[in-house]
Amino acid sequence: MATTSDIRNGFCMEFNHDIYVVTDFLHVKPGKGPAFVRTTLKSVTNGKVVDQTFPSGHKIEEVRVERRYFQYLYTDEMGVNLMNNETYDQITIPEKLIGDAAKFLKEGMQVEVLYHATKEIPLNVELPQHMNYEIVQTDEMATAGNTSTNAQKVAKLDCGAEVKVPLFINIGDMVRIDTRTGAYLERVKK
Question: Which residue in 33, 106, 133, 160 has its CB near the most CB atoms, within 10 A?
Answer without folding.
Answer: 133
